[in-house]
Design a protein that fits this description.
This protein is mainly beta. It contains 1 helix and 11 strands, in the order βββββββββββα. The longest helix has 6 residues. The relative contact order is 0.19.
């Protein structure tokens, strides 16, 4: 069970996940090169959201290193690299919705995102509909405009695996005007003029 937040005792606290990374020693034997809390976490308490960056790759196929290099050390950006991947865990606290009933603004990234609900429930809001996913459910997000909301009474934890992608001609033909220009390219709530997002 997660301890309450000291700032808001009625809310659970964010929980930084443990990350275990393997590699090779000088003889080529497989070893654990790091084991501990994820090194990059960003909390947005006003939104009731936390981002825990697990790993990122910048190419496909990805380059496998041997040692303890850590590609997550850069600033948090919501989308993955154009030809890479990103895995993170997002936490959504309950009772943190804005005046529109959302926990994130509507946003779009040029990526395929696999959202695996680990705990609680999270509502995916699309342009004209919404669906609630519960622990064990998996959302496949395909470059659509979307937002998130935890409308339950417990924390929602979602593992997101984001894969860099490109819109095909069929999708480009039906996207609304300005969709490509409005893509989210930066981190959560930190780029002037950028569309803000939480995954």
């Amino acid at each position: 069970m997660t301890a309450p937040s000291p700032e808001r005792p009625d809310r659970p606290a964010f929980r930084v996940p443990r990350r275990i990374v393997t590699g090779h020693d000088m003889s080529g034997a497989s070893v654990v090169v790091s084991d501990g809390p994820v090194p990059v976490t960003r909390e947005l308490p006003e939104d009731g959201v936390a981002f825990h960056e697990i790993w990122v790759t910048s190419t496909a196929p990805a380059i496998i290193g041997a040692g303890a290099e850590d590609p997550t050390a850069d600033d948090i950006t919501v989308p993955p690299p154009a030809h890479g991947t990103r895995i993170r865990i997002n936490e959504f606290l309950p009772h943190s919705l804005d005046e529109h009933g959302l926990q994130s603004p509507m946003h779009r990234t040029q990526s395929i995102d696999y959202g695996i609900v680990l705990e609680g429930e999270i509502t995916l809001i699309l342009d004209g509909s919404e669906v609630t996913a519960r622990a064990g459910d998996i959302i496949v997000q395909r470059g659509t405009d979307h937002a998130w909301a935890n409308r339950g009474d417990t924390i929602a934890r979602v593992a997101f695996v984001l894969v860099g992608a490109e819109f095909g001609e069929e999708a480009l033909a039906v996207l609304p005007d300005g969709a490509i220009e409005g893509l989210m390219h930066h981190g959560p709530r930190d780029a002037p003029g950028a569309r803000e997002a939480v995954s």
